[in-house]
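Narrative of activities, Objective 1.

The group set out to show that a structural description can be obtained from nothing but a protein's sequence at a throughput compatible with the screening campaign. Below is one input-output pair from the validation batch, recorded exactly as produced.
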Amino acid sequence: MSNIETYWKKTTDVLKQDMNEITFDAFISPIIPIRYTDNLFIGSLNMGVVAYKDIIKKKYSDKINRALTEVFGRPMSFVFDDEISEENNEVKNQVNDNNIPVQRENGLISNYLFSNYIVGSSNNIAYAAAVAVADNPGEDDMYNPLFLYGGVGLGKTHLMHAIGNHVISCNPDAKVLYVSCEKFTTELVEAIRDKRTIEFKEKYRQLDLLLIDDVQFLSGKEAAQEEFFHTFNALFDAKKQIVMCSDRKPSEIQTLTDRLVSRMSKGLIFDIKSPDFETRTAILEKKAESKNIKIPSEILQYIAYTITSNIREMEGALNKIVIYAKFNNRIIDMELAEEVMKDVIKDNKANITVSYIQETVADFYKVSVDELLSKRRTKPLTIYRHIAMYLCRKLLEDSLEEIGEKFGGRDHSTVMNGCDKVCKLIETNEERAAEIKSIEKRIVGN
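Output recorded for this entry:
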């Protein structure tokens, strides 16, 4: 074990004496040690449980600090890596030496760059647009605003930060701000309460580049929509760049005013889909390389095969395997990977949905979900569509009507007919039967 792993192992041993097993497993086990200074111990959290961070800070930080102080023999405090800002120069200098991400005052995370963003068929167009915006922010109305949308953990936020970091590297004086929609709304509410709305407006309208994440949370917030509308217009009219991200395109965000939908749709809109198997594997290889981790390619492929729709969950699984191997003094092999991934597979089973099945089938046959749901009736697409319907019928409790509705509004007889054809196909075509079995294995994880 390295020094930091030894110290953390001793710290967790102390914590085990002061916590019950369930609490320890839920809130302490997922913590990943990163680095320590004279008085700070820096850790991260497996992506699958990032929602626990606030609970850990509020309820268990004192226990962790006491345990660290006991182990180190001097006062120590625990912090998460995303709490490190440029104001803490001592920590900033040390973490920069080790390529650990630093969150700047403008909200940008230092290691989200174009150079470490893996490009594949699912995101290549969005990536190209992001690069074009970063090279010439605000100069081309066709790229302003840039709106990126897609599911959780697919790399939208990475691209936003990469744009901001590139702009800053080319022009250190550029006024850049990354902010979540939730924070934008909270700041507005506080400004109204404290009668500081002029200060709020000035903060946002003097920017050269505004990166605003999770804009779907503007839904239902009339005051925030009104202020964002005017902020948008002020920046756009001044030829300043706006980049937005959401889990859906503007027209699908409920209760968003028509004029705001129109503004958001004024430039370019790109979706980022779930990465294919090759891209997922490449992402894991890059992640392992950045952490100087030597891990067999078959293990990376196993993770990429098991987790198909969320990059963060893949990275979390990789971290979990590495930490488990280190703390238990075991080599990383397929037996260990399968042991660690049991919980991930169990979670995947519990979260099987029509959309997940559609994505898995589309990924297997190298087509898009849009093609799968389209009205096109070419023979290959029709077969793939019927297979997806068959697996939905087999693995879910949804009715034929519910499945048909999620396949582009098709009726129940179409779904039933498709399922019947797949049943006959399984009986008569061994190759296709093997494919369907393989897809089902990906979905259920066993």
